[in-house]
Write a sequence for this structure.
């Protein structure tokens, strides 16, 4: 698997969030972007299969996550 270098424009808010997550998880901003893209791809694949994404609330009740495109 090769590597491609990209240049992207991100808002200050997004950059701050990436830096915060990277610092907290002791990773790089690049790794945080990889993770975000992987999660987005996974959710996209779920939608294509018409699958549902459920999260469990703190009280144990399930809640469906609706992702809009």
């Amino acid at each position: 698997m090769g590597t491609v270098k990209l240049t992207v424009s991100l808002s200050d808010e997004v950059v701050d969030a990436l830096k915060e997550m990277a610092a907290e998880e002791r990773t790089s901003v690049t790794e945080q972007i990889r993770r975000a893209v992987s999660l987005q791809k996974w959710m996209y694949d779920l939608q294509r299969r018409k699958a549902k994404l459920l999260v469990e609330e703190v009280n144990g009740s399930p809640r469906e996550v609706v992702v809009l495109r």
Notes: The radius of gyration is 15 Å. The helical segments are 12-25, 29-48. The longest strand covers residues 53-56. The chain has one domain: 12-65.
